[in-house]
């Protein structure tokens, strides 16, 4: 699928666009390709883009003072990736966004976003809905991490993201779930024998 058609199809699920609106929006996005292990943004640098994932898989993670990575989220096809606070405030990113596999993105910078909101006002509603959904999912994840045992968190992850689980290293899934890779391996082994 042509990259801009993927964006149009994605947006149309939330706010249907006219052909003219789609053309105006597409003109403000740029194609960006990432190699495996290449960064979209590194923790401490300023995030320059809101990015739509056309293909590939990214991970967003915080690196603590001891050098341990803590996965915040994964972004695959039809998802978005950004450090919104950094983008909006032009301040250092709180986390890194790195390609787990080669990725094709459609990116738009802050100036482009402001222009998009003026030229295609529907996008303000689109991004509001997108951010509401992300905030709701993040809150539920925090509640699950605080209240559910690791096995249930892993099962929920597999149910919610079956297409992601096969593409991500187990150490990254373990980090996302807040457990060690060894513990995740034991969980998987136990689940296979049940």
Give a structural overview.
The chain is α+β, with helices and mostly antiparallel strands and 194 residues long. It has a domain at 3-110: Sandwich (Jelly Rolls). It contains 9 helices and 6 strands, in the order H-H-E-E-E-E-E-H-E-H-H-H-H-H-H. Strands 1, 2, 3, 4, 5 and 6 form a 6-stranded antiparallel sheet that branches. Strand 3 and strand 4 (69-75) form a beta hairpin. The longest helix has 26 residues, at 122-147. The radius of gyration is 18 Å and the shape is globular. 26% of the residues are buried. The mean pLDDT is 95.
Summary?
This protein is an alpha+beta fold and 194 residues long. The chain has helices at residues 3-12, 19-28, 84-89, 110-119, 122-147, 150-160, 162-165, 170-177, 181-193; strands at 30-34, 39-41, 50-63, 69-75, 80-81, 96-108.
């Amino acid at each position: 699928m042509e990259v801009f058609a993927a964006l149009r199809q994605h947006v149309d699920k939330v706010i249907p666009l006219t052909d003219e609106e789609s053309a105006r929006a597409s003109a403000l996005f740029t194609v960006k390709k990432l190699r495996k292990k290449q960064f979209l943004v590194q923790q401490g640098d300023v995030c320059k883009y809101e990015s739509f994932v056309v293909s590939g898989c990214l991970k967003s993670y915080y690196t603590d003072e001891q050098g341990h990575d803590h996965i915040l989220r994964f972004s695959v096809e039809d998802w978005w990736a950004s450090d919104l606070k950094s983008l909006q405030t032009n301040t250092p990113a709180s986390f890194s966004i790195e390609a787990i596999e080669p990725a094709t993105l459609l990116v738009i910078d802050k100036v482009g976003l402001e222009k998009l909101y003026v030229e295609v006002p529907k996008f303000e509603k689109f991004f509001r809905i997108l951010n509401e959904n992300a905030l709701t999912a993040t809150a539920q994840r925090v509640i699950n991490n605080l209240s559910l045992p690791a096995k249930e968190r892993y099962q929920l992850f597999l149910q919610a993201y079956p297409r992601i689980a096969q593409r991500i290293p187990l150490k990254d899934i373990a980090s996302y779930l807040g457990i060690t890779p060894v513990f995740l391996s034991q969980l998987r082994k136990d689940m296979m024998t049940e």
